[in-house]
Amino acid sequence: MEINAEVKLGKKTKKLVKQLTGREIAVIDHTDIDQLAATSLIDTGIKAVVNASSSITGKYPNLGPEELLTNNIFIIDEVGTEIFQKLEDGDKIRIVDNEIFKAGSKIAEGRVLDRATLEEKLKISRENLEEELDKFVENTLEYAKEEKDLILDLHPPEIETQIEGEHVLIVVRGQDYKDDLEAITSYIREIEPVLIGVDGGADALLEFGFEPDIIIGDMDSISDYALQLGAELIVHAYPNGDAPGMERIHDLNLTAQKFPAPGTSEDIAMQLAYEKGSELITAVGTHSNMIDFLEKGRAGMSSTFLTRLKIGARLVDAKGVNKLYNNRLRPKHILQIIAAAMIPVIIILVVAPPMQQMMRLLLIKLRFSLGF
């Protein structure tokens, strides 16, 4: 295998994908690539991935590498973080099997992640899954005890957006969020719920032609454009009040409120909707199982567990709703529509006086022809 192309570098994949324009080689430092990161890389049209770390360690069955290989994206793993000192954006490199060359000189080598290697790692990860599950449950319960009072007795900031008695839709850029959002587009247009984008979830709403009413999160994976549209901004702060995301808000000359709370931004978005009296909370793209959280880099899901326990029946999780019902138009549906549309046309033609006269003339002509 030989690939020649320019490189773009980024230690945070979610930030790098915003700079990729296609046909480049993405140089990343991403241990256990998750499915969302893989999908984002694929959408940019890159030719290959050079990873300073291991794309799949075997710790758990992360879905990203398989997604990349399925889309014919070449992967070299474990080249080392020194690659970031040896390359700059725009440099042209040549990949020959597991070796990387710049200006004719070899600068690094790694391990090609092919199908055979991936299957081997996946087998190991499945064997490790029970042990990881034990650790995950222990962490979840341990932190749940510590965070119980903080989660169950949160005090969200005052907001201008009217939520009481309204439906609320919370959008997170999680697995299959695009398909799920597309599946409920008619619900959004008909019910017009309050739209809350969690970080990049605000950009997801914009992709589908909807503007968020509220944006909440760390503000690290959302576009400047989305932040400047006029939505209410709420920065997720640590329980002690520190809010690193405020720096970006101030840099854009915007204002925002802080919401100090443990856990994830999607959890406090649900808490906000619940505490402000929403009638129904629908969530798209949220993280709700062990693999989701391991891919997100979290050892447990105490805040999510407690949040969902608290808001209970008021929450509808739309994750995977696109698989529940596929409403794509099929050929038989088109024929049925045409047939249904023709019925009134035929009736009108039959009962219309000009058509009746034509039918009589045809009958008279037929009689003459047959000698009646």
Written description of the protein model:
By secondary structure, the protein is α/β, with parallel strands linked by helices. The protein folds into three domains: about 1-115, Aconitase, domain 4; about 140-325, Rossmann fold, CATH 3.40.50; about 335-370. About 45% of the residues lie in helices and about 20% in strands. The chain has 16 helices and 15 strands. It has helices spanning about 15, 35-45, 65-70, 85, 115-150, 175-185, 185-190, 200-205, 225, 245-250, 265-275, 290-295, 300-310, 320-325, 330-350, 355-370, and strands spanning about 1-10, 25-30, 50, 75, 90-95, 100, 105-110, 110, 165-170, 195-200, 215, 230-235, 255-260, 280-285, 315. Helix 5 crosses helix 13 (about 300-310) and helix 11 (about 265-275) runs parallel beside helix 13. The termini are far apart. The model has no long low-confidence stretch (mean pLDDT about 85). Pfam families: SteA-like_C, TPK_catalytic. This is Thiamin pyrophosphokinase catalytic region. Keywords: ATP-binding, Coiled coil, Kinase, Membrane, Nucleotide-binding, Transferase, Transmembrane, Transmembrane helix.
Number of strands: 15
Query: What is the distance, rounded to the nearest whole angstrom, between the alpha carbons of the first and last residues?
Result: 84 Å
Q: What is the alpha-carbon Rg in Å?
A: 28 Å
Q: What is the overall shape?
A: globular
Secondary structural class: alpha/beta
Assign the CATH topology of the largest domain: Rossmann fold
Largest sheet: 8 strands, mixed
Low-pLDDT runs = none
Strand content: 15-25%
Class of the largest domain in CATH?
Alpha Beta
Tell me the helix content. 40-55%
